[in-house]
Structure formats: structure tokens, C-alpha cells
Amino acid sequence: MNLKSFSFIAAIVFSGVSLLHLARILFGGNILILIGHWEVPMSISIVAFFVTTYLAYGGFKLSSRKEK
């Protein structure tokens, strides 16, 4: 697997995770994330949305670069 295909696949995965966090943000109380007995606060999903969106953008940008 070369760098372009790896970057593209990673970008797709990050896009999916980003969309799941966005769904949790938009639908608020209807989606609950539990880790053990700890309920993950909404603020973590907000930060995670921006981080995964940036990583997806970087992956798509890297996968579309021309090779030298």
C-alpha cells in the first residue's frame, strides 16, 4: 500500500468518525456514549469533531498530491 492510498483510506475513516461526532452534537441528548460507567461529555465530542475533521482534510489533501 502506498502513501496515497493509505492517506485516502485514513481520510475516509476520519470523515466517518467526524460525522458520528457531528450527529451526536446535532442530536444532543439522544446519543449517549459510555466508557465503563463514565458518560462522555458533549465538550469532548465538539473537540473530537474539529480534530477528526482536520485529520480527514489533511488525509484528503495528502492523497491528492502529485508524486514527484
Question: Would you give an account of this structure?
Answer:
There is one protein chain. With 68 residues, the chain is mainly alpha-helical. Helix content is 69%, strand content 6%. It contains two helices and two strands, in the order αββα. Strands 1-2 form a two-stranded antiparallel ribbon. α1 (3-27) packs antiparallel against α2. It is elongated and about 50 Å long.
Task: Jot down its keywords.
68 residues
Write the topology of this structure.
Blueprint: H1 3-27, E1 34-35, E2 38-39, H2 42-63
Antiparallel strand pairs: 1-2
Helix pairs in contact: 1-2
How would you summarize this macromolecular structure in one to three sentences?
The chain is mainly α. The protein has helices spanning 3-27, 42-63, and strands at 34-35, 38-39. It starts with a helix and ends in a 5-residue tail after the last helix.
Global geometry: elongated
Average pLDDT works out at 90
Sequence stretches where pLDDT stays below 50 over 5 or more residues? none
What's the order of the H and E elements? Answer: HEEH
Q: What's the Cα radius of gyration?
A: 15 Å
Name the structural class.
Answer: mainly alpha
Major sheet details: 2 strands, antiparallel
Work out the strand percent.
5-15%
